[in-house]
Amino acid sequence: MKAAFSIFLCAMIFISCDENSATESPGNGTWLLYEHGYSPGAGYITENVPAIPTQTLTLNPDGSLETTVTVWKKYKYYLIIEPGGGQRNVLALYEEKPSDPNPDLTEVNVGYNMVSDEDGNLKLYFRWCIEGCHMAFKRYGP
Q: Is 79's pLDDT higher than 90?
């Protein structure tokens, strides 16, 4: 089951997603993955992520990233890109520390549109997704 979910997340990186309305993007801290959504071509499926093993994403203030989400383990750094003009902030993931703190979005290989829902949860939407796909995180720990 764990391997199947990891394969699913890898596959979803290559799909794009529907963009929902955004509020202010959440920032640093540790987040627990609790839900993912996708479309197999018709309709939209939302599934809960099992609590075990715990899958977390930690965005440290210094730009370093810690995660137990299998498909992201190679990423050690992140930037939150604020494109302005009404566009959603983008969480960009990097294997090496980025040299440009303000890259052009066209230069971002692994990035997710960030949305904060009414409960303060973080939703990451796969960029360029046509039918919809997301991962939902809630604050975790102190």
A: yes
Spell out a b/e string for 26-39, using b for 16 or more CB atoms within 10 Å of the CB, else e: beebbbbbbebbbb
**What tokens appear for 62 in the block?**
């210094």
DSSP assignment of the chain: -HHHHHHHHHHHHTSB-PPPP--PPP-SEEEEEEEEEE-SSSS-EEEEPPSSS--EEEE-TTSBEEE--GGGTT--EEEEE---TTPPPEEEEESS--S-SS--GGG-SSEEEEEE-TTS-EEEEETTBSS-EEEEEEE---
Decide yes or no: CATH 2.40.128 for domain 2-139. yes
| pTM of the shown model | 0.76
Kindly report, residue by residue over 82-113, the tens digit of the pLDDT.
888 888 899 999 999 999 888 888 888 899 99
Q: Where are the domains of the chain?
A: 2-139
pLDDT band at 141 (very low <50, low <70, confident <90, very high): confident
Question: In the predicted model, what is the mean pLDDT of residues 121-140?
Answer: 87
